[in-house]
Amino acid sequence: MDACKRRGLRRDAEINRERIMTAARVAFRERGLDVPLEEIARRAEVNIATLYRRFPDREALIEAILADHMADFVEAAEAAELTDDPWEAFAELVEHICGMQAADQGVTEGFTVCFPGAALEAPRARAMAAVERVIERARRAGTLRPDFTGQDLMLIMMANAGVLGSTRGAAPQAWRRLIALILGACRTDRLGPPLPPAPSTTDLHAAMSSARPQR
Amino acid sequence: MDACKRRGLRRDAEINRERIMTAARVAFRERGLDVPLEEIARRAEVNIATLYRRFPDREALIEAILADHMADFVEAAEAAELTDDPWEAFAELVEHICGMQAADQGVTEGFTVCFPGAALEAPRARAMAAVERVIERARRAGTLRPDFTGQDLMLIMMANAGVLGSTRGAAPQAWRRLIALILGACRTDRLGPPLPPAPSTTDLHAAMSSARPQR
DNA sequence: AAATAAGTGAAGGCATGCCTTCGTTTGCCG
DNA sequence: CGGCAAACGAAGGCATGCCTTCACTTATTT
Asked: Can you give the distance from the CA of residue B27 to the C1' of nucleotide C16 in angstroms?
Protein backbone atom coordinates (compact mmCIF):
# COMPACT_ATOMS: atom_id res chain seq x y z
CA MET A 1 0.00 0.00 0.00
CA ASP A 2 2.82 2.37 0.87
CA ALA A 3 4.85 1.23 -2.05
CA CYS A 4 2.11 1.63 -4.60
CA LYS A 5 1.24 5.10 -3.44
CA ARG A 6 4.75 6.42 -3.40
CA ARG A 7 5.81 4.65 -6.56
CA GLY A 8 7.47 7.21 -8.76
CA LEU A 9 8.23 9.70 -6.00
CA ARG A 10 11.70 11.08 -6.22
CA ARG A 11 13.82 10.39 -3.18
CA ASP A 12 13.87 14.01 -1.96
CA ALA A 13 10.14 14.21 -2.48
CA GLU A 14 9.69 11.05 -0.49
CA ILE A 15 11.72 12.52 2.38
CA ASN A 16 9.71 15.71 2.33
CA ARG A 17 6.49 13.74 2.31
CA GLU A 18 7.64 11.96 5.41
CA ARG A 19 8.56 15.21 7.13
CA ILE A 20 5.15 16.62 6.34
CA MET A 21 3.35 13.56 7.65
CA THR A 22 5.33 13.64 10.87
CA ALA A 23 4.76 17.33 11.39
CA ALA A 24 1.07 16.95 10.60
CA ARG A 25 0.71 14.10 13.05
CA VAL A 26 2.12 16.25 15.83
CA ALA A 27 0.26 19.40 14.83
CA PHE A 28 -3.09 17.65 14.57
CA ARG A 29 -2.49 16.00 17.90
CA GLU A 30 -1.63 19.21 19.69
CA ARG A 31 -3.80 21.76 17.92
CA GLY A 32 -6.61 19.87 16.23
CA LEU A 33 -7.58 19.43 12.61
CA ASP A 34 -8.01 23.17 12.08
CA VAL A 35 -4.36 23.96 12.55
CA PRO A 36 -3.16 26.19 9.68
CA LEU A 37 -1.46 24.16 6.99
CA GLU A 38 1.17 26.84 6.94
CA GLU A 39 2.12 25.90 10.47
CA ILE A 40 2.49 22.28 9.49
CA ALA A 41 4.74 23.30 6.63
CA ARG A 42 6.79 25.41 9.01
CA ARG A 43 7.16 22.55 11.48
CA ALA A 44 8.17 20.25 8.65
CA GLU A 45 10.71 22.83 7.47
CA VAL A 46 9.20 22.64 4.04
CA ASN A 47 7.63 25.29 1.86
CA ILE A 48 3.88 25.54 1.85
CA ALA A 49 3.81 24.86 -1.88
CA THR A 50 5.59 21.58 -1.31
CA LEU A 51 2.91 20.56 1.12
CA TYR A 52 0.18 21.44 -1.35
CA ARG A 53 1.89 19.50 -4.12
CA ARG A 54 1.92 16.38 -1.98
CA PHE A 55 -1.56 16.82 -0.50
CA PRO A 56 -3.96 18.74 -2.72
CA ASP A 57 -5.96 20.05 0.19
CA ARG A 58 -6.42 19.77 3.93
CA GLU A 59 -8.83 16.86 3.63
CA ALA A 60 -6.22 14.77 1.87
CA LEU A 61 -3.70 15.36 4.62
CA ILE A 62 -6.23 14.70 7.35
CA GLU A 63 -7.22 11.50 5.64
CA ALA A 64 -3.64 10.32 5.43
CA ILE A 65 -3.04 10.93 9.12
CA LEU A 66 -6.38 9.68 10.38
CA ALA A 67 -5.96 6.48 8.39
CA ASP A 68 -3.32 5.38 10.88
CA HIS A 69 -5.46 6.25 13.86
CA MET A 70 -8.38 4.48 12.29
CA ALA A 71 -6.22 1.40 11.92
CA ASP A 72 -5.48 1.56 15.65
CA PHE A 73 -9.19 1.80 16.25
CA VAL A 74 -9.82 -1.33 14.20
CA GLU A 75 -7.06 -3.14 15.99
CA ALA A 76 -8.37 -2.21 19.43
CA ALA A 77 -11.90 -3.23 18.57
CA GLU A 78 -10.87 -6.57 17.15
CA ALA A 79 -8.51 -7.20 20.03
CA ALA A 80 -11.37 -6.64 22.44
CA GLU A 81 -13.19 -9.55 20.87
CA LEU A 82 -10.45 -11.79 22.21
CA THR A 83 -10.82 -10.74 25.83
CA ASP A 84 -12.47 -13.49 27.83
CA ASP A 85 -14.85 -11.60 30.07
CA PRO A 86 -17.55 -9.94 27.93
CA TRP A 87 -18.02 -6.99 30.26
CA GLU A 88 -14.32 -6.37 30.58
CA ALA A 89 -13.96 -6.51 26.84
CA PHE A 90 -16.61 -3.85 26.50
CA ALA A 91 -15.44 -1.60 29.31
CA GLU A 92 -11.81 -1.74 28.31
CA LEU A 93 -12.68 -1.01 24.72
CA VAL A 94 -14.63 2.09 25.70
CA GLU A 95 -11.79 3.26 27.88
CA HIS A 96 -9.27 2.59 25.18
CA ILE A 97 -11.16 4.53 22.56
CA CYS A 98 -11.73 7.47 24.87
CA GLY A 99 -8.08 7.33 25.80
CA MET A 100 -7.17 7.66 22.13
CA GLN A 101 -9.32 10.76 22.01
CA ALA A 102 -7.71 12.17 25.12
CA ALA A 103 -4.25 11.60 23.69
CA ASP A 104 -4.90 13.27 20.36
CA GLN A 105 -7.02 16.28 19.55
CA GLY A 106 -7.12 15.37 15.89
CA VAL A 107 -8.53 11.97 16.74
CA THR A 108 -11.15 13.59 18.93
CA GLU A 109 -12.35 15.84 16.14
CA GLY A 110 -11.90 13.31 13.39
CA PHE A 111 -13.88 10.58 15.11
CA THR A 112 -16.85 12.63 16.19
CA VAL A 113 -17.16 16.26 15.22
CA CYS A 114 -16.58 15.65 11.56
CA PHE A 115 -16.03 12.70 9.36
CA PRO A 116 -13.69 13.35 6.52
CA GLY A 117 -13.20 11.36 3.43
CA ALA A 118 -14.74 8.26 1.96
CA ALA A 119 -11.35 6.57 2.18
CA LEU A 120 -11.82 6.13 5.92
CA GLU A 121 -15.27 4.70 5.59
CA ALA A 122 -14.14 1.12 5.07
CA PRO A 123 -11.87 0.82 8.13
CA ARG A 124 -14.42 2.72 10.11
CA ALA A 125 -17.18 0.31 9.20
CA ARG A 126 -14.89 -2.59 10.03
CA ALA A 127 -14.14 -1.13 13.45
CA MET A 128 -17.76 -0.44 14.16
CA ALA A 129 -18.68 -3.97 13.18
CA ALA A 130 -16.21 -5.34 15.72
CA VAL A 131 -17.52 -2.90 18.30
CA GLU A 132 -21.06 -4.09 17.66
CA ARG A 133 -19.96 -7.65 18.24
CA VAL A 134 -18.33 -6.72 21.53
CA ILE A 135 -21.49 -4.93 22.58
CA GLU A 136 -23.68 -7.82 21.52
CA ARG A 137 -21.59 -10.31 23.47
CA ALA A 138 -21.73 -8.23 26.65
CA ARG A 139 -25.46 -7.83 26.27
CA ARG A 140 -25.97 -11.55 25.79
CA ALA A 141 -23.83 -12.24 28.83
CA GLY A 142 -26.34 -10.19 30.77
CA THR A 143 -23.93 -7.61 32.14
CA LEU A 144 -24.46 -4.85 29.57
CA ARG A 145 -27.92 -3.31 29.57
CA PRO A 146 -29.96 -4.77 26.72
CA ASP A 147 -30.90 -1.40 25.25
CA PHE A 148 -27.30 -0.34 24.71
CA THR A 149 -26.40 0.04 21.04
CA GLY A 150 -23.50 1.00 18.81
CA GLN A 151 -24.98 4.49 18.55
CA ASP A 152 -24.59 4.82 22.28
CA LEU A 153 -20.89 4.32 21.93
CA MET A 154 -20.89 7.17 19.45
CA LEU A 155 -22.74 9.28 21.99
CA ILE A 156 -20.15 8.44 24.59
CA MET A 157 -17.38 9.44 22.21
CA MET A 158 -19.11 12.73 21.50
CA ALA A 159 -19.62 13.36 25.20
CA ASN A 160 -15.99 12.60 25.83
CA ALA A 161 -15.02 14.97 23.04
CA GLY A 162 -17.00 17.68 24.79
CA VAL A 163 -15.22 17.18 28.09
CA LEU A 164 -11.84 16.99 26.38
CA GLY A 165 -12.50 20.14 24.39
CA SER A 166 -13.23 22.09 27.54
CA THR A 167 -10.63 20.64 29.87
CA ARG A 168 -7.66 19.72 27.73
CA GLY A 169 -4.54 20.86 29.49
CA ALA A 170 -6.06 22.19 32.68
CA ALA A 171 -7.83 19.04 33.90
CA PRO A 172 -6.33 16.20 31.88
CA GLN A 173 -7.91 13.47 33.97
CA ALA A 174 -11.46 14.79 34.02
CA TRP A 175 -12.58 12.57 31.16
CA ARG A 176 -11.76 9.45 33.16
CA ARG A 177 -14.31 10.42 35.74
CA LEU A 178 -17.03 10.95 33.19
CA ILE A 179 -16.32 7.65 31.51
CA ALA A 180 -16.29 5.78 34.81
CA LEU A 181 -19.64 7.32 35.66
CA ILE A 182 -21.12 6.38 32.31
CA LEU A 183 -19.74 2.87 32.34
CA GLY A 184 -21.40 2.36 35.69
CA ALA A 185 -24.70 3.32 34.11
CA CYS A 186 -24.27 0.74 31.38
CA ARG A 187 -24.46 -2.32 33.61
CA THR A 188 -27.62 -4.37 33.81
CA ASP A 189 -27.38 -4.65 37.57
CA ARG A 190 -27.71 -0.90 37.80
CA LEU A 191 -30.53 -0.37 35.35
CA GLY A 192 -32.50 2.80 35.78
CA PRO A 193 -35.66 3.84 33.98
CA PRO A 194 -35.80 3.09 30.26
CA LEU A 195 -33.66 5.30 28.07
CA PRO A 196 -35.01 7.67 25.42
CA PRO A 197 -34.61 6.20 21.93
CA ALA A 198 -31.15 6.11 20.41
CA PRO A 199 -30.49 8.32 17.41
CA SER A 200 -30.46 6.43 14.14
CA THR A 201 -27.13 5.60 12.57
CA THR A 202 -28.17 7.59 9.53
CA ASP A 203 -28.85 10.66 11.61
CA LEU A 204 -25.53 10.37 13.38
CA HIS A 205 -23.71 10.07 10.08
CA ALA A 206 -25.57 13.05 8.69
CA ALA A 207 -24.78 15.06 11.79
CA MET A 208 -21.10 14.22 11.61
CA SER A 209 -20.57 14.92 7.95
CA SER A 210 -22.50 18.18 8.12
CA ALA A 211 -20.50 19.32 11.09
CA ARG A 212 -17.70 20.76 9.00
CA PRO A 213 -19.39 21.69 5.74
CA GLN A 214 -18.02 25.17 5.24
CA ARG A 215 -14.85 24.24 3.48
CA MET B 1 -30.46 48.25 35.61
CA ASP B 2 -31.80 48.84 32.11
CA ALA B 3 -32.51 52.45 32.85
CA CYS B 4 -29.13 53.25 34.30
CA LYS B 5 -27.28 51.69 31.41
CA ARG B 6 -29.31 53.35 28.70
CA ARG B 7 -29.48 56.72 30.42
CA GLY B 8 -28.53 59.33 27.91
CA LEU B 9 -29.03 57.18 24.82
CA ARG B 10 -30.85 58.99 22.07
CA ARG B 11 -34.10 57.42 21.05
CA ASP B 12 -32.89 56.16 17.67
CA ALA B 13 -29.80 54.77 19.33
CA GLU B 14 -31.95 53.00 21.89
CA ILE B 15 -34.03 51.44 19.13
CA ASN B 16 -30.93 50.29 17.29
CA ARG B 17 -29.48 48.86 20.44
CA GLU B 18 -32.61 46.82 20.89
CA ARG B 19 -32.51 45.59 17.28
CA ILE B 20 -28.89 44.53 17.74
CA MET B 21 -29.64 42.67 20.95
CA THR B 22 -32.54 40.85 19.36
CA ALA B 23 -30.55 39.90 16.28
CA ALA B 24 -27.61 38.80 18.42
CA ARG B 25 -29.83 36.62 20.58
CA VAL B 26 -31.10 34.80 17.51
CA ALA B 27 -27.74 34.60 15.79
CA PHE B 28 -25.94 33.27 18.86
CA ARG B 29 -28.70 30.75 19.36
CA GLU B 30 -28.58 29.46 15.81
CA ARG B 31 -24.92 29.78 14.93
CA GLY B 32 -23.00 29.99 18.18
CA LEU B 33 -20.82 32.68 19.70
CA ASP B 34 -18.45 32.73 16.76
CA VAL B 35 -21.00 34.09 14.31
CA PRO B 36 -19.51 37.06 12.42
CA LEU B 37 -20.55 40.33 13.99
CA GLU B 38 -21.22 41.55 10.48
CA GLU B 39 -23.98 38.99 10.17
CA ILE B 40 -25.58 40.19 13.36
CA ALA B 41 -25.48 43.74 12.04
CA ARG B 42 -27.06 42.56 8.81
CA ARG B 43 -29.84 40.73 10.64
CA ALA B 44 -30.44 43.81 12.76
CA GLU B 45 -30.54 45.95 9.60
CA VAL B 46 -27.95 48.20 11.14
CA ASN B 47 -24.52 49.20 9.96
CA ILE B 48 -21.59 47.35 11.41
CA ALA B 49 -20.18 50.60 12.78
CA THR B 50 -23.36 51.16 14.76
CA LEU B 51 -22.95 47.78 16.35
CA TYR B 52 -19.36 48.53 17.29
CA ARG B 53 -20.32 51.88 18.76
CA ARG B 54 -22.85 50.21 21.04
CA PHE B 55 -20.71 47.18 21.92
CA PRO B 56 -16.97 47.83 21.79
CA ASP B 57 -16.14 44.25 20.94
CA ARG B 58 -17.63 40.79 20.64
CA GLU B 59 -17.11 40.02 24.32
CA ALA B 60 -19.30 42.94 25.33
CA LEU B 61 -22.13 41.74 23.13
CA ILE B 62 -21.79 38.15 24.28
CA GLU B 63 -21.83 39.33 27.86
CA ALA B 64 -25.00 41.33 27.34
CA ILE B 65 -26.81 38.37 25.80
CA LEU B 66 -25.48 35.71 28.13
CA ALA B 67 -26.47 37.80 31.13
CA ASP B 68 -30.11 36.98 30.40
CA HIS B 69 -29.41 33.28 30.00
CA MET B 70 -27.37 33.30 33.16
CA ALA B 71 -30.32 34.82 34.97
CA ASP B 72 -32.48 31.93 33.73
CA PHE B 73 -29.84 29.58 35.06
CA VAL B 74 -29.96 31.20 38.48
CA GLU B 75 -33.73 31.08 38.47
CA ALA B 76 -33.83 27.39 37.54
CA ALA B 77 -31.28 26.47 40.18
CA GLU B 78 -33.04 28.37 42.93
CA ALA B 79 -36.42 27.03 41.85
CA ALA B 80 -35.06 23.51 42.15
CA GLU B 81 -34.40 24.13 45.82
CA LEU B 82 -38.15 24.41 46.28
CA THR B 83 -38.96 21.01 44.80
CA ASP B 84 -39.96 18.61 47.53
CA ASP B 85 -38.25 15.40 46.50
CA PRO B 86 -34.48 15.87 46.68
CA TRP B 87 -33.73 13.46 43.86
CA GLU B 88 -36.35 14.96 41.58
CA ALA B 89 -35.03 18.41 42.31
CA PHE B 90 -31.58 17.28 41.23
CA ALA B 91 -32.64 15.29 38.19
CA GLU B 92 -34.98 17.95 36.88
CA LEU B 93 -32.36 20.63 37.35
CA VAL B 94 -29.83 18.66 35.34
CA GLU B 95 -32.37 18.09 32.61
CA HIS B 96 -33.39 21.72 32.62
CA ILE B 97 -29.85 22.98 32.29
CA CYS B 98 -29.02 20.55 29.53
CA GLY B 99 -32.26 21.54 27.83
CA MET B 100 -31.14 25.16 27.86
CA GLN B 101 -27.96 24.06 26.17
CA ALA B 102 -29.87 22.09 23.57
CA ALA B 103 -32.10 25.04 22.82
CA ASP B 104 -29.33 27.56 22.31
CA GLN B 105 -25.92 27.08 20.80
CA GLY B 106 -24.63 30.26 22.38
CA VAL B 107 -25.60 28.98 25.80
CA THR B 108 -23.84 25.72 25.10
CA GLU B 109 -20.60 27.47 24.24
CA GLY B 110 -20.94 30.20 26.81
CA PHE B 111 -21.54 27.86 29.71
CA THR B 112 -18.80 25.36 29.03
CA VAL B 113 -16.38 25.90 26.20
CA CYS B 114 -15.46 29.41 27.24
CA PHE B 115 -16.35 31.74 30.02
CA PRO B 116 -16.47 35.33 28.97
CA GLY B 117 -16.42 38.37 31.10
CA ALA B 118 -16.13 39.07 34.78
CA ALA B 119 -19.61 40.59 34.71
CA LEU B 120 -21.13 37.13 34.54
CA GLU B 121 -19.09 35.79 37.39
CA ALA B 122 -21.46 36.97 40.12
CA PRO B 123 -24.68 35.41 38.76
CA ARG B 124 -22.73 32.35 37.83
CA ALA B 125 -21.41 31.92 41.35
CA ARG B 126 -24.91 32.42 42.66
CA ALA B 127 -26.31 29.75 40.37
CA MET B 128 -23.55 27.32 41.26
CA ALA B 129 -24.15 27.91 44.95
CA ALA B 130 -27.79 26.96 44.52
CA VAL B 131 -26.77 23.95 42.46
CA GLU B 132 -24.42 22.84 45.19
CA ARG B 133 -27.22 23.04 47.71
CA VAL B 134 -29.46 20.92 45.49
CA ILE B 135 -26.68 18.37 45.14
CA GLU B 136 -25.95 18.36 48.84
CA ARG B 137 -29.61 17.82 49.68
CA ALA B 138 -29.92 14.87 47.29
CA ARG B 139 -26.75 13.37 48.70
CA ARG B 140 -27.97 13.70 52.28
CA ALA B 141 -31.27 12.14 51.29
CA GLY B 142 -29.23 9.14 50.24
CA THR B 143 -30.40 8.99 46.65
CA LEU B 144 -27.54 10.84 44.99
CA ARG B 145 -24.21 9.08 45.18
CA PRO B 146 -22.10 10.63 47.93
CA ASP B 147 -19.09 11.28 45.73
CA PHE B 148 -21.04 13.47 43.30
CA THR B 149 -19.89 17.10 43.28
CA GLY B 150 -20.62 20.39 41.60
CA GLN B 151 -17.71 19.75 39.29
CA ASP B 152 -19.49 16.66 38.09
CA LEU B 153 -22.36 18.80 36.94
CA MET B 154 -19.86 20.84 34.94
CA LEU B 155 -18.58 17.62 33.43
CA ILE B 156 -22.10 16.65 32.48
CA MET B 157 -22.63 20.02 30.84
CA MET B 158 -19.41 19.64 28.88
CA ALA B 159 -20.38 16.14 27.83
CA ASN B 160 -23.76 17.39 26.75
CA ALA B 161 -22.09 20.18 24.80
CA GLY B 162 -20.06 17.57 22.96
CA VAL B 163 -23.11 15.59 21.95
CA LEU B 164 -24.98 18.73 20.94
CA GLY B 165 -22.07 19.99 18.90
CA SER B 166 -21.96 16.79 16.90
CA THR B 167 -25.68 16.09 16.55
CA ARG B 168 -27.40 19.46 16.46
CA GLY B 169 -29.96 19.39 13.71
CA ALA B 170 -29.60 15.81 12.59
CA ALA B 171 -30.36 14.03 15.87
CA PRO B 172 -31.97 16.64 18.08
CA GLN B 173 -33.02 14.17 20.77
CA ALA B 174 -29.75 12.36 21.16
CA TRP B 175 -28.70 14.41 24.16
CA ARG B 176 -31.71 13.20 26.13
CA ARG B 177 -30.49 9.67 25.91
CA LEU B 178 -27.04 10.56 27.17
CA ILE B 179 -28.44 12.53 30.08
CA ALA B 180 -30.83 9.74 31.02
CA LEU B 181 -27.95 7.30 30.99
CA ILE B 182 -25.79 9.55 33.15
CA LEU B 183 -28.57 10.36 35.61
CA GLY B 184 -29.07 6.65 36.08
CA ALA B 185 -25.42 6.36 37.02
CA CYS B 186 -25.75 9.06 39.66
CA ARG B 187 -28.08 7.19 41.98
CA THR B 188 -26.79 5.58 45.14
CA ASP B 189 -28.77 2.42 44.53
CA ARG B 190 -26.78 1.88 41.35
CA LEU B 191 -23.31 2.61 42.63
CA GLY B 192 -20.50 1.10 40.64
CA PRO B 193 -16.82 1.09 41.51
CA PRO B 194 -15.42 4.33 42.97
CA LEU B 195 -14.98 7.19 40.52
CA PRO B 196 -11.66 8.73 39.60
CA PRO B 197 -11.11 12.04 41.40
CA ALA B 198 -13.09 15.05 40.23
CA PRO B 199 -11.15 17.90 38.64
CA SER B 200 -10.67 20.86 40.94
CA THR B 201 -12.88 23.90 40.49
CA THR B 202 -9.79 25.96 39.84
CA ASP B 203 -8.70 23.65 37.05
CA LEU B 204 -12.12 23.74 35.45
CA HIS B 205 -12.17 27.52 35.57
CA ALA B 206 -8.72 27.69 34.08
CA ALA B 207 -9.72 25.28 31.36
CA MET B 208 -12.78 27.24 30.46
CA SER B 209 -11.22 30.65 30.35
CA SER B 210 -8.26 29.44 28.36
CA ALA B 211 -10.52 27.72 25.87
CA ARG B 212 -10.97 30.83 23.72
CA PRO B 213 -7.76 32.76 24.30
CA GLN B 214 -6.89 33.57 20.69
CA ARG B 215 -8.88 36.76 20.42
C1' DA C 1 27.90 14.46 -18.36
C1' DA C 2 23.94 16.46 -20.71
C1' DA C 3 18.99 16.28 -21.08
C1' DT C 4 14.78 16.33 -18.84
C1' DA C 5 11.25 15.57 -15.93
C1' DA C 6 10.14 16.47 -11.34
C1' DG C 7 10.43 19.12 -7.19
C1' DT C 8 11.11 23.44 -4.67
C1' DG C 9 10.15 27.99 -2.52
C1' DA C 10 9.39 33.14 -2.71
C1' DA C 11 5.83 35.86 -3.65
C1' DG C 12 1.20 37.04 -4.37
C1' DG C 13 -3.96 36.76 -5.27
C1' DC C 14 -8.31 35.85 -2.99
C1' DA C 15 -11.63 35.55 0.71
C1' DT C 16 -13.18 36.39 5.29
C1' DG C 17 -13.65 38.66 9.53
C1' DC C 18 -12.18 42.33 12.85
C1' DC C 19 -12.31 46.96 13.74
C1' DT C 20 -11.71 52.21 12.48
C1' DT C 21 -12.22 56.57 9.95
C1' DC C 22 -14.74 60.29 8.34
C1' DG C 23 -18.19 62.89 5.90
C1' DT C 24 -23.27 63.03 6.37
C1' DT C 25 -27.69 62.81 8.74
C1' DT C 26 -30.74 63.31 12.63
C1' DG C 27 -32.86 63.62 17.17
C1' DC C 28 -33.06 66.88 20.89
C1' DC C 29 -32.84 71.22 23.69
C1' DG C 30 -33.01 76.00 24.31
C1' DC D 1 -36.92 76.64 14.68
C1' DG D 2 -31.97 76.80 14.55
C1' DG D 3 -27.78 74.81 16.01
C1' DC D 4 -25.03 71.16 17.87
C1' DA D 5 -23.77 67.00 19.93
C1' DA D 6 -24.74 62.46 18.96
C1' DA D 7 -25.47 58.75 15.94
C1' DC D 8 -25.19 56.82 11.39
C1' DG D 9 -23.22 54.14 7.40
C1' DA D 10 -20.05 53.62 3.29
C1' DA D 11 -15.66 52.55 2.63
C1' DG D 12 -11.29 50.92 3.77
C1' DG D 13 -7.10 49.23 6.52
C1' DC D 14 -5.28 45.15 8.80
C1' DA D 15 -4.60 40.35 9.81
C1' DT D 16 -5.06 35.53 8.87
C1' DG D 17 -5.50 31.49 6.28
C1' DC D 18 -6.32 29.13 1.78
C1' DC D 19 -4.36 28.06 -2.40
C1' DT D 20 -1.65 29.13 -7.00
C1' DT D 21 2.00 30.84 -10.06
C1' DC D 22 6.44 30.76 -11.98
C1' DA D 23 11.33 31.13 -12.20
C1' DC D 24 14.92 28.26 -10.38
C1' DT D 25 17.14 23.83 -8.57
C1' DT D 26 17.95 18.97 -8.34
C1' DA D 27 17.50 13.96 -8.86
C1' DT D 28 17.36 10.60 -12.27
C1' DT D 29 18.02 8.55 -16.91
C1' DT D 30 20.66 7.46 -20.96
From this structure: 18
